[in-house]
Amino acid sequence: MHDVTNPVTTVETAFEIIEYVAEHDDVGVSQMATDLDRAKSTVHRHLGTLVRRGYVVEDDGNYGLGLRFLDLGLTARNERPLYHEAHTKVDELADRTGERVWCMTAENGRSIHLYGASGSQSVRTDSREGDVGYLHQHAAGKAILAYLPAEYVGDIVAQYGLSARTDDTITETDELFERLERIRERGYAFNRGESIPGLNAVGVPITDAHGIAIGALSISGPANRLQGAKLNAELPELLLGAVNEIEINLSYG
Predict the structure, then answer these.
(1) Helix (H, G, I), strand (E, B), or coil: what is residue 79?
(2) CB-based burial of residue 204 (10 Å sphere; 0-12 exposed, 13-18 middle, 19+ buried)?
(3) Using 50, 70 and 90 to split pLDDT, how confident is the model at 7?
(4) Cβ–Cβ contacts within 10 Å for residue 218, how many?
(5) Where are the beta strands (DSSP E) in 45-109?
(6) Are 33 and 39 in contact (CB under 8 A)?
(7) Distance between CA 127 and CA 133 in Å, rounded?
(8) Sign of CA dihedral 167, 173, 174, 176
(9) How far apart are CA 244 and CA 246, in angstroms?
(10) Residue of 236, 240, 247, 238 whose CA lies nearest to 207
(11) Cα separations (Å) of 123 from 70, 117, 127, 169, 224?
């Protein structure tokens, strides 16, 4: 992870505005300036540049994200070999299990939902492709953490902490490292209501030739379906098989 100690102020302001627009679609300049504690003229000037570049659109004085970001996002994803090797397996697993399947990766110590597919009986959640989150809150994220150098995991925890999404989320460093050790012993991770109450998941890391995680696959579903032998044996076996094929293809593709 990079520690940026001397950020460029104008760039920081531009991205504050972009992120605000993303969270508050169809918002006006005055409200934006108030919430960001910026001069209205400064916000308006940045918005003008962003509109001209196609990153923001304006409609009757209100602003929203432009589809230029879609082009950039798809380009970024398409440049990842992991996506090309994993997305067909994600689709196959979703069809076979009927549940929600994700390929997750990590960037700058945060989790990124790279690609997902819904099975015939998968439940709806607020997760979407491109979501940025915290690795310790997900089965796939913990699977990734378990196969990263311990020093790097410590840096991630130091920078981002261990925030809780539910009462079952890991929030203590010692507990996290104990859990990661057990994940390495068996080769897969569980999430029992740690990101969404009542939702269980299992995740398996995808590693490079040096055994370092570059991503993970996960299968999630309601706890009443994902429990017992299905959660503890059947789904891990399916994921381990799929990951084995992905790793071979990544090594020799």
Answers:
(1) coil
(2) buried
(3) low
(4) 30
(5) 56-59, 62-65, 100-107
(6) yes
(7) 10
(8) positive
(9) 6
(10) 247
(11) 26, 11, 11, 20, 12
Question: 81-97 vs 235-252: helix axis angle to the nearest 10?
Answer: 150
Contact 153, 109 (CB under 8 A): no
Query: What does the pLDDT look like over 127-180, one tens digit per residue?
Result: 899 999 999 999 999 999 999 999 999 999 999 999 999 999 999 999 999 999
Are the beta carbons of 95 and 119 closer than 8 angstroms? yes
The two tokens of residue 22 are: 């993303």
Q: Where does the pLDDT of residue 25 fall: very low under 50, low under 70, confident under 90, or very high at 90 and above?
A: confident
pLDDT confidence tier of residue 244, bands split at 50, 70 and 90: very high
3-state SS assignment for residue 57: strand
What token pair was written down for 113?
């939902």
Residues paired with 115 in a beta bridge = 103
Q: Which helix (H) or strand (E) covers residue 243, if one does?
A: helix 235-252
Which residues are CB-contacts of 57 (< 8 A; sequence separation ≥ 6)? 51, 63, 64, 65, 66
CA 47 to CA 30: how far, in whole Å?
A: 12
pLDDT value for 65: 94
The one-character DSSP state at 38 is -
Place of tokens 């003229």: 41
Name the pTM for this structure: 0.90
Strands 56-59 and 189-192: unpaired
In degrees and rounded to multiples of 5, residue 58 shows phi and psi of -120, 135
Which tokens belong to 139?
């089965």
Residues 6 or more apart whose CB falls under 8 angstroms from that of 147 comprise 184, 205, 207, 211, 212, 213
**According to DSSP H, which parts of 130-172 are helical?**
139-146, 150-160
